[in-house]
TrEMBL record:
Family label: Belongs to the glycerophosphoryl diester phosphodiesterase family.
Record key words, sorted: Glycoprotein, Hydrolase, Membrane, Transmembrane, Transmembrane helix
Short name of any one Pfam family annotated for the protein: GDPD
Gene, per the UniProt record: Gdpd2
Every GP-PDE domain range: 227-480
Protein name (database record): GDPD2 inositolphosphodiesterase
GO CC annotation, single: plasma membrane
Transmembrane spans: 41-65, 85-113, 125-143, 163-183, 190-212, 492-513
Organism per entry: Edolisoma coerulescens
Keyword Isomerase: no
Length: 514
């Protein structure tokens, strides 16, 4: 390379010290004749790739935050250890992205100052470890939580236009160090190669909006009605899940449907419980230390002895637990496992619907569970149209005995459907925006679960979904409008302006540095 214009000696020294892990002043560096070799350039390229790799992982970490409570529950069932693992995830991700970002900024500044890119071997090892850790995280995600790849694709509908603008801005800023390298190197082939790669990347970015689609690119008057809220086990961020307190809190959040899970005790009493074991949401190990914690193995008298609220204050499954009022805390510790009869009475008084699954589906006495549960519903006096039936087992029997109960299917409609499907309940990853619109046109109610983050709620709102099941009813209740809504003409104008400004800045950078 040609001799660089350089920068002040103090600045060069401050940049060289953390990057090269040695104290070399600019004058000493010249006397030693240090230059950036091809190997040094390869390590810079590796550093840049590691930075992008960790940046993509940070994006994934933000996306999977919507579903991370499921991961916490999974770890508890496996290890009997409760911890908000999202904190561990974000602390580790912040360390990795900060480290690679600092090194990359140092390298770019050294390049602009004309200093050698002599990356120390310690940094090389740490960068390799960073790449391996992130690769392991992606591998684990693909093996154990593959549906999150679908979540990432959905997230691009919410972030695509803004990721495009940010990426164009970042690549535009790279014009300065790139121009510096091109003007300094004597290798014509390298100059042409770098320039062609950069131009190809920028052209691809400039045209990227042709492939960006989002349901929120629409006119204001085309926006569908706001989706109704279904409380996932009530309002689990404000009260212990599947309790009467949780139901009441959900009503305060304007929830229209209380979603819960039903099991049947050993003496035939249906009650609210999600897990097949009582360990996570009760103090069963303290009250019955010598008994297995299987939910259906206990009779109703034993179940009533269990505390179904204190765990909520002790484990703090959500950060919102810290903001509970003293009155709510007192009410929490008084919670007991409610029977289905109690839940139906509360739903009838509050005039909300109730939707439930009947667990466990593989139980040998499942048909009896269905009959007992249906008997409680019929005896409760609740209007049958307020009951949404999710279980697939023995659905025909239910339709015959209680034809007024609304049948909700956990699958998409079939081509040769014998009976019309009016309600479907699916994971939000399983339906595209196009399918949601088609179901809406065919008057099929679509409920998607579990939707906690405003960005995801906004995308589904723009798509026209009927309702969403959520843990964060207190957050989604306050949303009066999707996070963003852009008419196609406005987005086209932003696209053209961003691309033109970027092009002018790149030309200015190359002319200025020449």
């Amino acid at each position: 390379m040609a001799d660089p214009p350089g920068c002040c000696s103090a600045c060069a020294t401050c940049l060289l010290c953390p990057y090269s892990c040695q104290w070399i002043t600019a004058k000493k560096e010249k006397r030693k004749g240090l230059r950036t070799t091809k190997c040094d350039c390869s390590w810079f390229l590796f550093l840049f790739c590691v930075f992008l790799f960790t940046l993509v992982w940070l994006y994934f970490a933000i996306v999977i935050l919507n579903d991370f409570h499921n991961f916490n529950e999974f770890i508890f069932r496996q290890r009997k250890l409760w911890l908000d693992w999202s904190l561990v995830l974000f602390i580790a991700t912040a360390v990795l992205i900060s480290y690679s970002s600092v090194l990359l900024v140092l390298a770019l500044c050294l390049q602009l100052c004309g200093q050698p890119l002599k990356l120390h071997w310690v940094h090389k090892i740490l960068l390799i470890l960073t790449a391996l850790v992130v690769a392991a995280a992606f591998t684990g995600l693909g093996i154990k939580w593959a549906e999150e790849w679908k979540s990432a694709r959905i997230s691009l509908q919410a972030t695509g236009p803004f990721l495009h603008i940010g990426t164009v801005g970042g690549m535009t800023l790279l014009a300065w160090p790139l121009a510096s390298v091109i003007y300094r190197t004597r290798n014509t082939g390298l100059r042409v190669f770098l320039l062609l790669v950069y131009c190809a990347a920028m052209i691809a970015l400039y045209l990227a909006p042709l492939g960006i689609t989002s349901p929120c690119i629409m006119e204001e008057n085309q926006l569908p009605p706001k989706p109704a809220l279904v409380g996932h086990r009530g309002a689990p961020m404000l009260a212990p899940e599947n309790t009467l307190m949780s139901l009441h809190k959900a009503v305060e959040c304007d929830v229209q449907v209380f979603e819960t899970d039903v099991m049947v005790s050993a003496d035939g009493v249906p009650f609210l419980m999600h897990d097949e074991e009582l360990t996570r949401t009760t103090n069963v190990q303290a009250v019955f230390p010598d008994r297995a914690a299987q939910s259906t193995a206990f009779n109703w008298t034993d179940l009533q002895q269990l505390d179904a609220g204190s765990w909520f204050l002790e484990r703090r499954p959500f950060p919102t637990v810290q903001s509970l009022s003293p009155a709510d805390r007192n009410e929490t510790i008084r919670q007991r496992i409610p029977s289905l009869e109690q839940a139906l009475e509360a739903a009838k008084q509050r005039n909300i619907s109730i939707m439930f699954d009947l667990r466990p589906e593989n139980h040998s006495d499942y048909q009896n569970f269905v009959n007992v549960t249906l008997g409680v519903i019929l005896q409760s006096g609740i209007p049958l149209q307020q009951v949404l039936w999710l279980p697939d087992g023995f659905r025909e029997d239910v339709q015959q005995q209680a034809p007024g109960v609304q049948q909700v299917y956990g699958r998409k409609r079939l081509e040769n459907e014998k009976e019309p499907v009016l309600h479907v309940n699916l994971p939000y990853q399983d339906m595209s925006s196009e399918e949601i619109r088609q179901y809406r046109q065919d008057n099929i109610s679509v409920n998607l679960y579990v939707v906690n983050q405003p960005w995801l709620f906004s995308v589904l709102w723009c798509s026209g979904v009927s309702s969403v099941t959520t843990n964060a009813c207190q957050v989604l209740k306050e949303m009066k409008h999707p996070i963003w809504l852009l008419p196609s003409s406005t987005y086209l104008m932003i696209w053209v302006v961003v691309d033109c400004v970027s092009f002018l800045i790149i030309i200015w950078a190359f002319v200025l540095l020449k």
